[in-house]
Write a structure and sequence with these properties.
Strand order of the largest sheet: 3-4-8-7-6-5
Strand content: 25-35%
Largest sheet: 6 strands, antiparallel
Order of helices and strands: HHHEEEEEEEEE
Helix content: 10-25%
Structural class: alpha+beta
Number of strands: 9
Number of helices: 3
Amino acid sequence: MKRILMAALTLSIAACSNGQVKKYAVTKTDAEWRKQLTSEQFQVTRKKGTENPYTGKYWDNHKEGQYNCVCCGQPLFSSATKFDSGTGWPSFWQPLVKANVEEVADNSFGMERTEVNCSRCGAHLGHVFEDGPKPTGLRYCMNSASLVFVPKKN
């Protein structure tokens, strides 16, 4: 009987998780990430935290350039698609390259949202909402702590 229960439990766990563990090109232990990142960057990117609105260094940045992942450097967003959403977080209407971000269902805190992660290292970046400007109608609401800004070279 114990074997049957253990087999049923194993199958139900596998069914719930689809038996898949996402593998990223860049992987590190928490200890390695902590050495590389500030405590806020670690909390946001590795523990799916969020910074307070109007506190991040890029929410009001109007310089031309590119926003890369703070963890692995992958290019994520362009200043050409950044807009003032009035939310206090850097917002973009599309990623630089769609394949550089992954979108995952997020049902935490009793809400249905779409989480946005870096596709190379799995860093939590923020969320995407369907209340953005044309042409996409999307608002990629990102945490400054998950980004590093690279100014455009003249």
